[in-house]
Design a protein that fits this description.
- This protein is an all-alpha fold.
- The chain has two domains: 1-116, no CATH class; 131-202, no CATH class.
- Helices cover 66% and strands 0% of the residues.
- The chain has helices spanning 3-13, 19-29, 39-51, 59-68, 80-94, 99-110, 121-130, 138-151, 157-172, 181-201.
- Helix 8 (138-151) crosses helix 10.
């Protein structure tokens, strides 16, 4: 991960450099069981945020949320998003951030559960960015599915296929996968093709 981006964000927030937190985040995103939910994913999401900067209401909150949104990632845990959101909240509190920013970042990270309709513009934007992988090239999407399977390698194949198919069908059943026109036009069609192909191959 690019530490210059981290330092730039810290400067915009009026924080110290917080190198210890940056190093800890880097360590978490480098864990051996992560094949997709790693530093490369964070780098990609930050790049998409930069490209879609014009859509953001609170760019800084979105960037903090992206840095932390997969910070805690344990394959068999159901509280990864909450644990990541709580870490972000603790970090912001320790840096004397406003309650408004702390609450906003926490809500943004929780939106990556993808189990409810985003409640505002920035939640929608964060979700679109997090789901950008679904609409990438078919070759890269296929690799994404390989990485996800590796992360869940301890789950028997017949169980994994059933659960994975259920998850993919939920996204495919949505009226729109992407809320913002920018991402809808960029990824919606290819995402639906990728999802259907993945379902068919399971």
């Amino acid at each position: 991960m690019d530490e210059s981006k981290w330092f730039d964000l810290m400067g915009r927030l009026g924080f110290d450099e917080n190198m210890e937190t940056y190093t800890k985040l880097q360590s978490h995103y480098s864990e051996k069981h992560r094949y997709y939910h790693n530093a490369n994913h964070i780098i990609a999401t930050l790049e998409y945020l930069q490209q879609a900067k014009h859509l953001a209401n609170d760019y800084n909150a979105l960037e903090v949320a992206l840095w932390f949104h997969d910070a805690i990632y344990k394959v068999f845990s159901s509280s990864n998003e909450l644990d990541s959101a709580n870490w972000a909240s603790e970090f912001l509190k320790n840096n004397n951030a406003t309650d408004d920013l702390i609450g906003r970042v926490h809500r943004l990270i929780m939106a990556t559960l993808h189990n409810a309709t985003p409640s505002d513009n920035d939640e929608s934007l964060l979700v679109d960015i997090d789901l950008s992988i679904l609409g990438c090239s078919s070759e890269f999407y296929d690799q994404f599915e390989v990485w996800i399977r590796k992360e869940y390698k301890l789950i028997p194949s017949f169980i994994y296929k059933k659960k994975r198919k259920e998850i993919l069908k939920i996204f495919l059943a949505r009226e729109r996968i992407y809320s913002h026109e920018y991402f809808f036009e960029k990824f919606e069609k290819s995402a639906r093709i990728n999802l259907q192909n993945a379902i068919d191959s399971l």
